[in-house]
Design brief:
Structural class: alpha+beta
Shape: globular
Number of strands: 17
Organism: Sporomusa ovata
Keywords: Ligase
CATH architecture of one domain: 2-Layer Sandwich
Largest sheet: 5 strands, mixed
Strand content: 15-25%
CATH class of one domain: Alpha Beta
Strand order of the largest sheet: 13-14-12-16-15
Protein name: ATP-dependent DNA ligase clustered with Ku protein, LigD
Enzyme class: ligase
EC number: 6.5.1.1
CATH topology of one domain: Alpha-Beta Plaits
């Protein structure tokens, strides 16, 4: 690793020459994890993350001075950018203009984005060109302190039981931050009106059934000691952190796919550490387990009608 944090170098990535810089800059002060290590992680995880990024409008959350520094969201693909970077044009009525989102379809694009200090990669629930049609539904489980991801695991298991009864497969992943996210792949024609309404009604019913554990109301004052089921993420204009993305926490944690068995064990043992994974751990996991989230890309399901 270069000693000069401002040193620029050129990488050849899949036939593309990319200038990268600041490789020795510390991006996670608690561990000394550098920008160079961030690029290395994204290069090594690329075979798994790229299928989940490809053709989904990408919002980059950029941290020029590392995970504890100031950040900004970037929806418009930054200009200038290499002419081989693909984009997805989407009309924004609120901005009264077309926003050209980056489309991370290949390794050079991923490395280019990482070099821009895009620590976190957030994606739409839609796949281009059907940007108004969600390919999946997500429940974002957010613990209100002193609740933790262990409480999220309990709620996740309750949701799994509901979906199992309706013959729907569900897939959990850590947010890489505080919570847990449950994905229901659809990959069949659906609308955001349908998925958002379904998620809201189900979250509200779970709140009514488990009032001491679950809250479906977005007011933060109501979340203390409970798990907020964020149903509002099922929106054409919102994004969710992509599986395998780094998160800007104290340590280089990753939004990591997990098995339901791991969720159950973490809940039974009341151990939040069992659902926290850093970059090196995720690379080891994927060597052994492959992509636990692969079925999310292709599994075709339809939501039941809530009676």
């Amino acid at each position: 690793m270069p000693n000069d944090s401002k040193l620029k170098t050129t990488l050849e990535v899949a036939g593309r020459k990319l200038k990268v810089s600041n490789l020795a800059k510390i991006f996670y002060s608690a561990t000394g994890f550098t920008k160079g290590e961030m690029l290395d992680y994204y290069i090594r995880i690329a075979p798994l993350i790229l299928p989940h990024l490809a053709n989904r409008p990408l919002t980059m959350k950029r941290y020029p001075n590392g995970a504890q520094g100031k950040f900004f969201y970037q929806k418009q693909c930054p200009a200038p950018h290499p002419d081989w970077i693909k984009t997805i044009p989407i009309w924004s009525s609120s901005n009264n203009r077309t926003i050209n989102f980056c489309n991370a379809t290949d390794l050079p694009t991923l490395v280019w984005a990482a070099n821009l200090a895009a620590l976190e990669l957030h994606t739409s629930l839609s796949v281009s060109p059907k940007v108004s049609q969600p390919s999946l539904l997500v429940f974002d489980l957010d613990p209100g302190p002193p609740a933790t991801i262990v409480d999220c695991a309990q709620v996740g298991l309750l949701l799994k039981d509901y979906f199992d009864k309706h013959r729907l497969q569900s897939f959990p992943k850590t947010s890489g931050s505080k919570g847990l996210q449950i994905y229901i792949p659809l990959n069949t024609p659906a609308s955001y009106d349908l998925t958002k309404s379904f998620a809201r009604i189900l979250a509200t019913r779970f709140q009514e059934k488990y009032p001491n554990l679950i809250v479906a109301n977005m007011k933060k004052v109501l979340r203390t000691g409970k798990v907020f089921i964020d149903w509002s993420q099922n929106d054409e204009h919102k994004t969710t952190v992509c599986v395998y993305s780094l998160r800007a926490r104290q340590r280089p944690t990753i939004s990591t796919p997990v098995t339901w068995e791991e969720v159950l064990v973490a809940h039974k043992q009341k151990n939040p550490d069992l659902l926290s994974f850093e970059a090196s751990q995720v690379l080891d996991r994927t060597d052994k387990l492959g992509d636990l989230f692969a079925p999310v890309l292709t599994l075709k399901q339809k939501l039941p009608v809530i009676q």
